[in-house]
Specification:
Length: about 270
């Protein structure tokens, strides 16, 4: 069952009744030029006030008018705001599936939020990466299509954090819930004690080879086998698929070791 965060200040900072809210938003957005000036592009980011509409609605609407050319183009919005009541380290992300508003329910991109674990992994924040991965699989009960990748990431984060027993416990808890008939099942089989040669042979597509070599390399680094791990990471950086998160993981591992520079990183074509 989807978890939904109720609207916190509807009826206080803005109207709580749907028709009244829709009318007020329309009034604000129509308060400027009748037709926005033609634009060839639109801003990538906006800094917009978020007080009650009576205070900042007109200013916010003027900023959002700049996005008129983005209609039908932008598919994902990243919304950042200050933490008013509780101090946090870094960023805090909602754990729900959607936000309730008087104008309807706004779904959250859970797959994008899952990428927070990757960001922590890139930065070498192993425990944070594990916590994000663990939260994701618990919240979704490992039923999402990308669950296997999150389990792999959490396992490797724990191993890089020198916690092999915790890594094995995490992997053995969630591996039975994963689809063993499709990729990346060979990766989880390897992490459970399988043969690295079988893993590499099972990776037939370029993307799979990028993933397999990166995961194997990270595990080798966790075992203290630096030379073997670095060799695989360098192969990924040279021949891998730049559009994959594992490619970026290989780059950041090498960068952390002082063996890669931004110029070494190939860009997705």
């Amino acid at each position: 069952m989807a978890s939904i965060r109720p609207a916190a200040v509807a009826g206080m900072f803005y109207p709580g009744e749907p028709r009244a809210l829709a009318a007020e938003v329309a009034r604000f957005l129509g308060g400027g030029d009748a037709e926005p000036a033609p634009r060839l592009a639109f801003p990538k980011a906006l800094v917009v006030p978020h007080a009650g509409y009576v205070y900042s609605g007109a200013v916010a609407a003027r900023a959002y008018q700049e996005l008129s050319a983005a209609r039908g183009v932008v598919r994902r919005v990243v919304l950042l705001g200050p933490a008013h009541r509780v101090p946090v380290r870094g960023l805090a992300a909602p754990g729900v599936d959607a936000f309730e508003t008087p104008l309807g329910t706004v779904p959250l991109d859970r797959a994008a939020l899952r990428s927070l674990a990757w960001i922590d992994f890139y930065r070498g924040r192993w425990n944070d990466a594990y916590r994000e991965a663990s939260k994701y699989v618990h919240d979704t009960e490992a039923k999402e299509p990308d669950a296997a990748y999150v389990v792999i990431l959490g396992t490797l984060a724990l191993r890089r954090d020198a916690r092999p027993r915790d890594a094995d416990a995490f992997l053995r808890e969630w591996q039975p819930k994963l689809d063993a008939s499709r990729w990346p099942a060979p990766v989880t089989a390897y992490l459970l004690g399988g043969d690295a040669r079988i893993l590499l042979a099972a990776a037939r597509e370029p993307g799979e080879r990028t993933e397999a070599r990166t995961y194997l390399a990270v595990d080798l680094l966790a075992q203290g086998k630096r030379a073997e791990g670095v060799k695989l990471l360098q192969e990924v950086l040279r021949d891998g698929e730049p559009g994959y998160m594992e490619y970026d993981a290989a780059y950041h591992e090498l960068r952390r070791l002082g063996l890669a520079q931004p110029a070494d990183r190939r860009r997705r074509r």
